[in-house]
Specification:
The chain is of the alpha+beta class. Helix content is 20%, strand content 49%. A seven-stranded antiparallel β-sheet has the order 4-3-2-1-7-6-5, with helices on one face. The two termini are 21 Å apart.
């Protein structure tokens, strides 16, 4: 019960606040990845398959295809879920390339 109350309070808060950004990143942490895409020149390109999302020391890491495909500070990262809730969009400065990137992570669908 208290978990739902905390979630509602966090979602009603300012999306630009570090608290909200940290909450959204922790919400998707631990999900298994089916594949990761990045849009370049209006074309979606698959940049990785089968992996996971982890947070360590306030740095979110997307691991796919036996490689780190995206790494960003949680407080600088915009996170938004897909309407189907089968994935998430991460937008922010990538610590690996040093560029502003936007990637779409699609989750593995488990039947519950």
């Amino acid at each position: 019960m208290f978990e739902r109350i905390k979630e509602k309070i966090a979602l009603k808060s300012d999306p630009e606040s570090p608290r909200y950004r940290r909450f959204m990143a922790q919400r998707v942490c631990g999900h298994h990845i089916k594949y990761v895409t990045e849009r370049e020149n209006d074309v979606d390109k698959v940049i990785g398959r089968e992996g996971g999302i982890n947070i360590r020391d306030d740095v979110l890491t997307v691991f796919a295809s036996s490689d780190i495909v995206f790494k960003a500070n949680v407080t600088e990262l915009q996170t938004s879920e897909l309407m189907s809730r089968d994935g998430v969009v991460f937008t922010g400065p990538d610590l690996i390339s040093g560029k502003e990137r936007s990637i779409i992570v699609h989750f593995v669908n488990y039947i519950k």
